[in-house]
């Protein structure tokens, strides 16, 4: 069932006489957005178009960053490769979400799936060990809080509010948003098996078992982008990105 149709049918009963003009200000301590790490950390740099392999399973791209060791990592794109647009990831994503990051390294972290082969990004050498998983958890919490805030302002009963929030943050809905907005083209998936290991049936079986459903990869990246916006500009920034992605409750007129 379409989450937005379900949402409209549920909230239509509460739209009369409820002026959504109130604002709800919440202040949270902001985490540091830059971290310096030793020069042995593997960092990723944007690649030029000719670095993108035509067959994502035939080869990987080698990334290096001044003085850091190189590593073979997959190109950006989960369902569709970014191709020649890969080097323009920052400009394109900021246009899609209509938000300009003060610290773009946060956004770059949000695009790195766990086990993508990248453990630090950007000029600040921002370090992370588990891809965008941490930012995704923060983003999901921010979404729940902001949606809960709307439910309170619109006086939506608890049972209906729970269903609305559950439908909107469900991974299927977030996956669809990531695909329709084309954000998924800039998400880096899990590292692929080396060619020598692809000839081993045991390694192929292990990789197949551990390979994540692409829809969950995309959904996590959408959550992580909202989490990155929260750390960069607070709840108002996260709310603005959610609005651009149609992740807000729209009361019937």
Automatic annotation (TrEMBL):
Gene3D superfamilies: Ribonuclease III domain. InterPro entries: RNase_III_sf. Residues 32-42, 59-71 have a biased composition (Low complexity). GO terms for biological process: RNA processing. One of its GO terms (molecular function) is ribonuclease III activity. Residues 8-31 have a biased composition (Polar residues). Residues 1-75 are annotated as: Disordered. This is Uncharacterized protein.
